[in-house]
Amino acid sequence: MVFRDTRAKIIYKNNEQIEGIRRSSVLAAQTLKVVAPFVKAGVTTQYLNDICKQYMYDNKAKAATLGYHGYPKETCISVNDVICHGIPGKYELRDGDILNIDVTTILDGYFGDTSSMFTVGEVTDHAKKLILSTKECLNIGIRQCYEGNKIGQIGVEIDKYAKSLGYSVVYEFCGHGVGLKFHEEPEVNHSTPEDMGPEMKAGMIFTIEPMINAGKARSKVDKKDNWTARTIDGKLSAQFEHTICVTKTLPFVLTDVDNEYEIPTSVY
């Protein structure tokens, strides 16, 4: 969710800032790798949160989510029909569950934001397909990140692909600028009309985080906590997220620690 300041302008980062944001982004991604072996049946989402929390603190970072507009935990952990902002707690993971863990670190004043999907035990083929398709939606969005392209084209291409598979794209939550603050301009929607938004330029840093639903696109927020956003029809949802820096050539995926994406030789 983006709490927008409509007076804000896009911040184009310099090389020093990009390096600081990259270090924080790498730490966020490494946090997900550290917690991965503990994602199994019988483990509570609070336990997973605590592992992430400790790793961040051990590396002299803190969690951006804790206390942000009153959010009570260091991560968001969204299970099955939860689209985003799932609050870690007493829920024990079960065989067949799918879940997203979302981590945003603050390291030396810089923010890095990423999330990934995890599975518990043997999940259905339907769930596997949704997860793989959502990851491809992220890849499709990243391929749109080049100078001169409109930011809205990210959502155009994601929406086109997801709907071709019979899925829906959540439009009530979006990606966002990040780096010097948790949420900055520009807003990065994952379902947009053609030719929308500002042109991308080198030094622009933002997240792409498509939330793809197996059923209807809309969400409902739990009244008991005013955070947990679920699919309106109870069907599964999946999400992947990377922090991207636009360069003169290739997109620089700052949260990529698995060498999935080619690294540009320079930003400017």
Which blocks of ≥5 consecutive residues have pLDDT under 50? 1-6
The quaternary state of the protein chains shown equals single chain
Radius of gyration: 17 Å
**Coarse morphology:** globular
Q: What proportion of the residues is helical, as a percent range?
A: 25-40%
State the separation between the terminal residues, measured CA to CA. Answer: 30 Å
Helix count, per DSSP? 4
Gross CATH architecture:
Alpha-Beta Complex
Overall number of domains = 1
Give helix and strand order, one letter per element, not per position. Answer: HHEEEEEHHEEEEEEEEEE
Q: What's the β-strand tally?
A: 15
As a percent range, the share of strand residues is 15-25%
- The name of the CATH superfamily reads Creatinase/methionine aminopeptidase superfamily
| CATH topology type | Creatine Amidinohydrolase
Mean pLDDT: 96
How would a textbook summarize the main sheet? 4 strands, antiparallel
Helix-strand makeup class = alpha+beta
CATH class category label: Alpha Beta
